[in-house]
């Protein structure tokens, strides 16, 4: 395999650019938030075609969603009223936790492995961000013509089990809000209702035969939070037919999926390991969907996206 890596600085962002030359694929990651800024393929004319919303654009938008692919953890979505109690210690924070506003440390071996790893450790956050000593290595790795996103948490506590939630919040570009298509595989799904951004406790089981998402597009700003209860083949397909962009998401290890858009030209398809807080808030360690890491243990989870261009020129 032939990979190349270079660094760039734009608008106060330190960017790492990794290219899979053999497969004509490129990813750009900002060290601020370890956020994917671009996922692109080279077309037949040699042009890079991006798949993310505002792909490769680091300037602030005039309005609307300002991100590309937010990294979520050590909790995700929201804490009720911006705080929670974890074993009696207060956690405070905004939407999707502190990782999105943290400068991550690169652990690069990109040219030889086709991957980039970014590290956050206990030295990078305070006790009200998260009270235990748990580090996270986030890896973006070219994989079989696609891109794997790998989360690896290490619990450095000698006697305490740790609890975390995490995921990625990528927005996939569309020609318009009405243009995209999202195909879901057959299986049993459970929708978790979240009025005003918090779980009400109400759920709805959906036995789905497979095909276009069975949800009203106009209600995407309120989010559809889905538990993949019995979905044997977890391959989801996003399409932007006018521009010939297709993304297959391989989510074999993913327990939850959130669908969201603010009505702009994109759809966020968010693989999640955990759920937002309830209106009737539980202790952090009892949150719905919380993941556990044994003392001095590790937790590793991943998913893969495969972007494809139907129009090569």
Topology, pairings included?
Layout (H helix, E strand, L loop, with lengths): L2 E8 L2 E8 L4 E6 L4 E8 L5 E3 L18 E6 L8 E4 L2 E4 L12 E4 L1 H4 L1 E6 L13 E10 L2 E10 L6 E12 L7 E4 L2 E6 L10 E6 L2 E2 L11 E7 L4 E6 L4 E6 L5 E5 L5 E8 L17 E3 L4 E12 L4
Antiparallel strand pairs: 1-2, 2-3, 3-4, 4-5, 6-13, 7-8, 9-10, 10-11, 11-12, 12-24, 13-22, 13-23, 14-17, 14-19, 15-16, 15-18, 18-21, 19-20, 20-24, 21-22
Question: Which features characterize this protein?
Answer:
1 helix; eight-stranded antiparallel beta sheet; 1% helix; nine-stranded antiparallel beta sheet; 24 strands; 313 residues; Beta-galactosidase, Chain A, domain 5
Q: What letter string, H or E per element, gives the SSE order?
A: EEEEEEEEEHEEEEEEEEEEEEEEE
Question: How many E strands?
Answer: 24
**What is the percent of helical residues?**
under 10%
Terminal CA distance? 25 Å
Shape: globular
Number of domains as seen in the coordinates: 1
Q: What is the CATH C level class, in words? A: Mainly Beta
Evaluate the radius of gyration. 19 Å
Class by alpha and beta content:
mainly beta
Report the biggest beta sheet as strand number plus sense, adding barrel if it closes. 9 strands, antiparallel
Unreliable residue stretches: none
What CATH calls the topology is Beta-galactosidase, Chain A, domain 5
**Average residue-wise pLDDT:** 95
| Strand line-up across the major sheet | 9-10-11-12-24-20-19-14-17
Range of strand content: over 45%
């Amino acid at each position: 395999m032939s990979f190349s890596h270079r660094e760039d600085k734009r608008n106060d962002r330190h960017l790492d650019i990794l290219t899979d030359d053999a497969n004509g694929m490129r990813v750009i990651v900002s060290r601020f938030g370890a956020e994917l800024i671009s996922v692109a393929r080279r077309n037949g004319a040699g042009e890079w075609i991006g798949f993310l919303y505002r792909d490769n654009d680091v300037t602030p938008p005039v309005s609307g969603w300002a991100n590309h692919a937010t990294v979520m953890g050590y909790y995700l979505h929201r804490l009720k009223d911006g705080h929670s109690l974890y074993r009696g210690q207060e956690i405070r924070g905004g939407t999707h936790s502190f990782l999105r506003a943290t400068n991550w440390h690169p652990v690069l071996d990109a040219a030889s492995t086709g991957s980039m790893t970014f590290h956050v450790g206990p030295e990078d956050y305070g006790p009200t961000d998260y009270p235990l000593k748990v580090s996270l290595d986030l890896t973006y790795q070219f994989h079989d013509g696609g891109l794997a996103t790998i989360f690896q948490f290490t619990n450095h506590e000698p006697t305490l089990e740790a609890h975390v939630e995490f995921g990625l919040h990528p927005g996939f570009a569309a020609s318009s809000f009405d243009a995209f298509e999202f195909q879901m595989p057959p299986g049993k799904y459970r929708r978790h209702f979240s009025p005003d951004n918090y779980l009400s406790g109400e759920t709805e089981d959906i036995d789905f035969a497979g095909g276009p998402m069975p949800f009203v597009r106009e209600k995407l700003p309120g989010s559809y939070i889905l538990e993949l209860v019995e979905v044997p083949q977890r391959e989801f397909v996003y399409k932007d037919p006018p521009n010939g962009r297709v993304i297959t998401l391989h989510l074999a290890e993913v327990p939850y999926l959130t669908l969201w858009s603010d009505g702009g030209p994109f759809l966020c398809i968010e693989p999640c390991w955990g759920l937002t807080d309830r209106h009737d808030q539980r202790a952090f360690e009892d949150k719905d969907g919380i993941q556990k890491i044994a003392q001095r243990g590790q937790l590793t989870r991943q998913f893969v996206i495969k972007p494809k261009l139907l129009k090569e020129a």
